[in-house]
Predict the 3D structure of the following.
Amino acid sequence: MNTGLLFRDDAYQKTATARVLDVREHGIELDSTIFYPMGGGQPGDTGVLVRGNGEHIRIADTRKGEKPGTVDHIPAPDMPRPEVGEVLSLAIDWERRYALMRLHTALHLLSCVVTAPVSGGNIAPDKARLDFDIDMGLLDAERITRETNALIASGVATETIWITDEELEAQPELVKTMSVQPPRGAGRVRLLKIPGIDLQPCGGTHVRNIAEIGGIRVTRIRNEGKRNKRVEIVLS
Ligand SMILES: [Zn+2]
């Protein structure tokens, strides 16, 4: 059975209840979850599962399960284990997740300000980076900071769009406008649309309006190899 991924429909859901489906050595599987499993450069959520008797199970990380479509909630060391069938209250570390959402959405904007192929990326709660296949001389920290912040200030609402492989085939012009080629063969693709700015396949968690990012600052530009010029940002 697939885990219901509640963050896909509402990235702002901070609490939920769920039933335990399986307890393995490396993780707890639930019937649904608000915990985002590591993927797409975004780290897994941390938080807590609370048992009926009030006992707290601190979750140190969240990963995709071995079985496709499942999620492993990984407890911190020495935490109690729940029973299969037990109903738990879930709460994610919201401040950490919200910082990740703001930085993640900022990377979408960064990929539009720097017009070059993206060759890598990573997001942490305190900083994020994209690697570009570009000439070092074309990267100017001040200009990137200024132009990204101008986009943030435009206050555009983001949209999540699901399209089927067939709809994608029927609209080749859609793919042309995307900065990343969508994966095919899974039946449907989830897209993040920032109207007038960006459209790309993405399964991560984003803010509702890019104004929520507040502002960013480029802290470092570094040569990490022939095809990797790394631009690092923080929230400002
Ligand atoms: Zn995204």
Summary: Helices lie at 6-9, 94-113, 141-153, 165-170, 172-177. The longest strand covers residues 15-24. The pocket of zinc ion is lined by residues 104, 108, 192, 202, 204, 206 (CB under 6 Å).
